[in-house]
Sequence to fold (228 residues):
Amino acid sequence: KNQVEQSPQSLIILEGKNCTLQCNYTVSPFSNLRWYKQDTGRGPVSLTIMTFSENTKSNGRYTATLDADTKQSSLHITASQLSDSASYICVVSDRGSTLGRLYFGRGTQLTVWP
Amino acid sequence: EADIYQTPRYLVIGTGKKITLECSQTMGHDKMYWYQQDPGMELHLIHYSYGVNSTEKGDLSSESTVSRIRTEHFPLTLESARPSHTSQYLCASSVERGLSYEQYFGPGTRLTVT
Fold:
C-alpha cells in the first residue's frame, strides 16, 4: 500500500529558530515529491517539487531534501517567522499515474511563537 | 498565485438539504479534482475529471456527485446532506510540467451539516 508518513505530528518553535520536518514514503514507482504549506482554513500551496534525480531544492527560507534510496525527505525552515505557522504536507506522486494522482501525508502542524 | 475559486467558503446547513459546492478555474486546465479533508487528517481524493464530460470516483467513497460540462467548472453536489458529510472540501486543477503534474488548490469549502 502506498503511504506517506510525516513526523513530528506537531512542533512549536520560537521565532527566528530553524526547524526540520521529516517525511517517509513507500510510494512506488516514485515520480516526484512535493511539500505544501496549508494555512488554517485555506488550500495547500506548493513550496517545492523534486523528481527522483534531484536531492535538494530551495524556495527562499525553505529547503527540501530527497533521498530516493531510503525514501526519505526533509523540509528545513530557516529563521522562522510567525507567518510560517501552518501545516506542512508531504505529497508523493507515483510514476505510473497519468492522472497526476497524489498520496498525501497528514502534515506537520508548525506553530511559531514570538 | 493560482486562479482557482470555490464558493461558498463556509456553509452550515440542515440534514436532508441538497447542496452544490462550486469550483471554477481560469487556467484552462483539463484535469480537476475534489478532495475531502478532516481536521488533522490527510486529503482524500473523492472525484476527478480528465476533461469535459469525463468524471471518475476517487479513492474515498463519497455520496456526492460531480459534473464537468465546461472545462473551467467542476461542481460537487450532495443530494441529501447528513452530519457525516461535515468536512472541508478542496478543489484542485493540474497542469503537466515536464515529467510531473503541478496541482493548484482552491481555498476550500468548510461544510457543517447540523
In short: The interface with chain B takes residues 4, 31-32, 41-46, 49, 51, 89, 93, 99-102, 104-107, 109 of chain A (CB under 8 Å). The CA atoms of residues 16 and 80 of chain A lie 5 Å apart. The longest strand of chain A covers residues 30-38. DSSP finds no helices and eleven strands in chain A.
